[in-house]
Amino acid sequence: MEKEVSKIPKLTGKIKVPGDKSISHRAIMFGALAWGKTNVKGFLQGEDCLSTIKCFRKLGIKIEQNNDEVQIWGKGLKGLTEPQDILDVGNSGTTLRLISGILAGQNFLSILTGDNSIRKRPMARVTDPLRLMGADISGRENGKLAPLVIKGQNLKAINFTSPVASAQVKSAILLAGLYAEGITEVNEPSKSRNHTEIMLKSFGAEIDEVDNKVRIKPMPNLQAQDIHVPGDISSAAFFLVAGAIHPSADLLLEGVGLNPTRTGIIDVLQQMGANLEITETWTSAGEEVGNIRIKSSNLKGIKFGGDIIPRLIDEIPVIAVAACFASGITEIRDAEELKVKESNRLSTIATELTKLGAKIEELPDGLRIEGNSSLTGKLVESYHDHRIAMSLAVAGIMAEGTTVIKDSECVDISFPGFFEMLVGKLD
Ligand SMILES: O=C(O)C1=C[C@@H](OP(=O)(O)O)[C@@H](O)[C@H](O)C1
Ligand SMILES: C=C(OP(=O)(O)O)C(=O)O
């Protein structure tokens, strides 16, 4: 489906973005592994999280979903049953990598696959450490690519230093660690999002985090919990950037997750000079949450890289859009992980923004963007990548003429209702 976006006079009002994708996946998974009924509110009804529900239903778990409320009747750590069919994770890397850690410790066989994009994404980063724990996993190119076949085994703990800062890798190993003999330890080069650690602790797991190191003990059982999922800061990011670059904007984003491992976008926008304020904060199930006000801003280009990258990994395409409207140069480094997301996001965002008239150069590990651009609407590709489609829509409300985004339905992966919300703010 093609979506047309054009300039808007004003961007004002209150916004409540849908639930956090990372937390919604984990609520389903950990609820399935706990004893008793887990109630989830604010669940993200995006296709990725619906894929997680489908997989756990195939693993024998009763799950009822009504809009953003979900009930999961968990059957304990050993309560999953052998699926009668292939588990399809759709477009979701988080589902595939985290579920692999869980399935490695079961006493049955599972086969996992996903869409065209998922079957190109690197899986050795989880299959290698899981094999070190004793997992029996095969897959295309010797387990580097899905489909994967996992034959559950008795696992042993490992002390693993991950070459990449990835919450999916860390979480897969920690989940396998729940089933392993001994204490499992994961070290990573920079700290990635810690939703697994926070939520597993609330389910009763013995897990401790010190800087970039996490340790987990095997457990006999986890206890069901009530979980209120905060708004997804990665979805809020599109409105934060839109508000900052639009000349007549004043938006209040309510109930957004502000876990410090996710707030790199706020740090970067503030460094760029954004008129951004956190107006209220509170805590829900160990996660920081708050309201954010963003107003029209005069942004300036900045350079960033290193430890901040995992804290804003999914926001880089829309930060590139912000950089087009800043004064001066923005340089983003150490972001090679973007090459192995739903699309190669360094090249897809650079290619499509260039079509609109942006001055953007792809670097081996990032992007260099010259600001003060004037963009003109064109036909652009989303590459079926939700974050590329939404970033181009934000560029589209600032461009002269009409921007037409191809395969725009992919926004449903993480943000159903995105265009309606954006259009609802257009008056
Ligand atoms: O654990 C998670 O929920 C996620 C971790 C990140 O991926 P990596 O672990 O591959 O960096 C992120 O890009 C993805 O959107 C969600
Ligand atoms: C990379 C993403 O998700 P996943 O890895 O779960 O497909 C994303 O949502 O931007």
Automatic annotation (TrEMBL):
Q: Which enzyme class, named as a word?
A: transferase
Q: Which GO terms describe its cellular component?
A: cytoplasm
Q: In which pathway does it act?
A: Metabolic intermediate biosynthesis; chorismate biosynthesis; chorismate from D-erythrose 4-phosphate and phosphoenolpyruvate: step 6/7
Residues annotated as binding phosphoenolpyruvate: K21, G93, R121, Q168, R345, R387
Q: Where in the cell is it found?
A: Cytoplasm
Residues binding 3-phosphoshikimate: K21, S22, R26, S166, Q168, D314, K341
Give the residues annotated as active site.
Answer: D314
Protein EC: 2.5.1.19
Q: Which reaction does it catalyse?
A: 3-phosphoshikimate + phosphoenolpyruvate = 5-O-(1-carboxyvinyl)-3-phosphoshikimate + phosphate
Q: Which GO terms describe its molecular function?
A: 3-phosphoshikimate 1-carboxyvinyltransferase activity
Q: Which biological process terms from the Gene Ontology are attached to this UniProt entry?
A: amino acid biosynthetic process; aromatic amino acid family biosynthetic process; chorismate biosynthetic process
- Annotated Enolpyruvate transferase domain ranges read 7-422
Sorted UniProt keywords: Amino-acid biosynthesis, Aromatic amino acid biosynthesis, Cytoplasm, Transferase
Oligomeric state and interaction partners are given as: Monomer.
Recorded hits in NCBIfam families, A to Z, give: aroA
Question: What job does the chain carry out?
Answer: Catalyzes the transfer of the enolpyruvyl moiety of phosphoenolpyruvate (PEP) to the 5-hydroxyl of shikimate-3-phosphate (S3P) to produce enolpyruvyl shikimate-3-phosphate and inorganic phosphate.
What family does this belong to?
A: Belongs to the EPSP synthase family.
- UniProt cross-references to PANTHER family, sorted A to Z: AROM/DEHYDROQUINATE SYNTHASE, PENTAFUNCTIONAL AROM POLYPEPTIDE
Descriptive protein name? 3-phosphoshikimate 1-carboxyvinyltransferase
Species: Desulfonispora thiosulfatigenes DSM 11270
